[in-house]
Amino acid sequence: MADAVANATVADDAARVGNRPNAALGAGLNKAGPKARSAGAESRGTPSPGATQPRYVYQPWLERLGEGELGPLGDVEVLSAVTEAGMAARASTESLQEWGEKRLWLKKLDPLMWGKAAIALSKAASEAAEMAEMVAMCESEDEVACRIVAEQQEQTTSVLDQLQVANWAEAAAVLSATALDMADVTSTAFAALELFGVRNRRETQQ
Fold this sequence. Notes:
This protein has 10 helices and no strands. The chain has helices spanning 2-18, 25-30, 34-43, 60-66, 76-90, 96-107, 111-139, 143-151, 153-163, 168-205.
């Protein structure tokens, strides 16, 4: 009987997290409680004394992206890792075993760090899209746009070299796709973290 109740609870969790629409990223970050914030410190190698949350997998490139650095995205392995994480976050779970595996994976993520990186990359994607538009206007002989493009030449060279792309349009595509994947991971991880907290409170009250 106890096993049946436990399985039903896990199935309910899977339906609510694995198949639910992602919540707004900003709202998820704002709702992060003290436990999530202390967990963020732990992911950087400074675990809180007596903390019960799992140790997050530390990924130096994730912290760099959160600080606004774009260099890590020039690494194919980093791009692949983010893409795979986004696909895993969006994937529905067809069985309790799949949900169990997904839940274990989500508990190893630092949603605050993923969210910070998602916001930074979203901003960078918007700026890249604006520059791509300026370049297109300059090619149409818009003098003001050409002056802006010329003034931003140093930044253009830096960003395109870091991302290893040929132009601002490609940069905007890479940044926006990566930001979306990171936002999906963040919202799914926050949803799971919320469920973990609810279940822990229920178990404590029983």
